[in-house]
Specification:
The complex is a heterodimer of chains A (438) and B (484). The longest helix of chain A has 35 residues. Chain A is mainly α and 438 residues long. In chain A, helix 2 runs antiparallel to helix 3 and helix 3 packs antiparallel against helix 7. A two-stranded antiparallel sheet of chain A has the order 1-2. Chain A has 16 helices and two strands. Chain B has a three-stranded antiparallel beta sheet, with no helix packed on it. The longest helix of chain B is centred in the first third of the chain and has 15 residues. With 484 residues, chain B is α+β, with helices and mostly antiparallel strands. Classes of the chains: A mainly alpha (438), B alpha+beta (484).
Amino acid sequence: MKKSTKTFKKTTLILVLASATSLITNSAFASFADDKAHRQTASSAVTTEQIKINYVKIAYAAYSDSYSTVQTLQKNISAFLTSPSQLTLDNAKEAYKLARVPYQQSEIMRWDTDITINSDLAKQGGLSSVDDWEGQVNAWPLNEQAIDYVKGNQTSGIINQKKGEKITIDYLIKQNGVGGEANVTTGFHAIEFLLWGQDLNGTNPGAGERSFNDFQTDKSGACSASNCDRRRDFLAVSTQLLVNDLQAMSQEWSAKAAQTAGTLANNFLNSEDAIRYILFAMKSMATDELASARMNEGLVGKDVEQEHDCFSDLSHVAIYYNFQGIRNAFYGGYQSIDGKIIEGASIADLINQKNPALFQEFDNAFNSIEKKMFTILAVGEQSENPIRFDQIIGQNDEDKEKKVALDAVYELVSLSTSFDKLEAILSIEALTISGDGD
Amino acid sequence: MIKQILFIALLTHSITSFAVDRQQHLSGGDTTVNRHHASAYSAHSANIKSVQNILRFNGGNKFFEEPWAESVGSVSSQDGLGPLFNNNACQNCHVRDGRGHSSEALNNQQGSDFSTMLLRASKSELSDTQKTAISLGLQANVGDSCIGGQLQHKAIFGIKKEASQAVSYRYLYVSFSDGEKVQLREPIWHVKGISCEIDDDTVLSARVAPPMIGLGLLALIDEQDILQQEDINDENNDGISGKANKVWSIATQSVTLGRFGWKAGQPTLRQQTAGAFLGDMGLTTDFFPTENCLAHQLDCKASPSGNSDGVNYEVSSVILDKVTFYAHHLAVPARRNAYSRQVLNGQKIFNDLGCQQCHTQSYTTGKSETFPELSNQKIYPYTDMLLHDMGTSLTDFDKYSNTVNGDIPVEFLALAKEWRTPPLWGIGLAQTVDPNATFLHDGRARTLLEAVLWHAGEALPSQQKVLTLSKKQRIELLAFLADL
């Protein structure tokens, strides 16, 4: 059953999407460091100031793309709610998938507690940190029965509280985490659950299979589950909140924000620890969050839904673009969904001018890991018999895709040693660290 | 040549700083990490290098920081929260692997932030059989008939909560001999059972989440090194009478030295972790396979378990082992200015005051095949791991917040007035890791100075000497503590 992945190209993936929604362009799934030219280092010396300024531009581009792709998601969800059908539901699902591409790349920004904890940014009217903000946007795990019916309980969740409070943005924010932090009522994964439903296929192929009729109006008579109106409200309102949140975050990183006291961009630019924070984020994402929490714990455990996009089975997309976020931070660039390249002074340049051998070590490792992460993306996307991450979880350790995934984990964690060397070279405080909440 | 340099170095050393230990900035020996930001407590032992062990640590970290869902969630390895619980993720109490805090409360008002602390409950009117079992270390205590051994203030949807709790403060002042005053706040607890009354004879014990650093090193301190510091009847007449707790070990099915927890009620980190999973989060493990629902909590007993993933416990033994590995390997940060004149002066004052009589500076850890990175390390934890009488004000209390008789046993051999000397390593970074962190078992002390001033009981003579320190000496003492 194992298909060759040689023929898979990201453009193949895009064409599938393009037919589903015309809002998506051909470069949507490309990533900056795919092009060897972008992995070269600068010939002249770079300063930390230049790296910081470039990093803000990358952050702004990634959050702007996240904002625009969730706006696209919102348009597709509106169309779906106006006229529920398999086609409009599939379009909404494709738009969700596209929105994961820039967002997952932006997640590298999350390890910012060290540079924000004493800044009191929220008191100045903006967001306090990426890490604090993230809980409303991408929280996982998500206890889906806090939202809607599940197998074995047809009446669970806010949606099925017929006489419950009207579903508004304020209400969803208020309910987020009530009775347990996993009772997530907002963000990507809440929307994912509403669009797909529970994945009851175990390690067999197939994601959640919620019917579009779950979103017919109550009075249409076609509602396939109870309380369709509340479900429609939940989907529309949670999507609006996600749009608002990403708008707010992108505003924190604009050129104007960089000049304005109290924003995350301005705080970052003025932080003496900014470079250390970037390295720390790269190391935390690579060795801990991505390799351990998001890949290895699923692969070595026996729990097939121990994957972040467990309803949609899009974890292969999520983890691939998490890795691109690390490469972007290292090589100092980002490829926008409209194809535009943002690039400039990078951590790679800095390492290369201090110690070319260490740059080469990172570069080799990233190239090798990329091949493996791309294989996981490619087998998940191949048109015939795609192998999704939950199927890989179910494989034996000797099976081809499982082995590729475990090798990727090993190589990601092995970057620890390179980061230790980097720390010594740059004479900065140790980067040895665990993740910082999810 | 090398010998010569060494000789000169030794000579210089002995002239400039007699008896100064030049390794002591590495509080955890080779495991020490050079970190002093908000994430200072979150690093793994610096000498862990193998990919397998980093993955074990990171795997433990995942289950330590991510929330657990109530049964029956899609992510079946991570469900089973409750029915009754205090919090849904380890990290939510141990903020960034650090300590918790007690609630803020404005003047004459009650604070209800129990997000990082909890109350234990144990009866004091006991049968002779129960008293004997407790005194032998066979049984921790007998839980309250209404709320059990611990007040879980949260419940999953549809389950009745156990009790309400709040805290207010009365303020008092202590004066140094030079006239400077420090305000202290003493907690007044407001606790009430919801569907039943808490027993009149129940002793309540407030416990803030302790920091997670260095625990695996404490686990490897040789038992004899701890026991030889015991002086239960103060036979050497120094006013200090350290006592080891004797507790029941589930793994060995025997009475063992208690090492962990505010009253040293747990013998190992695995048992401590499993105890917290059950007591604080309502998650069963191989050590504690039964939900802690009381006989009268019928809704709790009827609630579904999170075992549906084919594992017999809500937290599989594999996951428990990972979290235990994680708890062993959270590293202690290095000291920043251990050899500055001010800090060294403060260290000398600390010793002259007699603080080191309980806050024992240093040990060398034993050898462990399971934990090679933690083995044979010279460490500087500043604890004797023993129980001490800390005075009336810090003694546990009843449901009306009245201090109880200090001689009532509340957790194996630990009495209501007794607390295990907490390690001081890393304490100077506590409020860097979390600006909300507070000190002492019940979080009443907002600063290290307040914590020092609350010391009474066996520590009273030392505390009295603190009050006579000059301003300069006080600054030096606090500079030393802040550098740990």
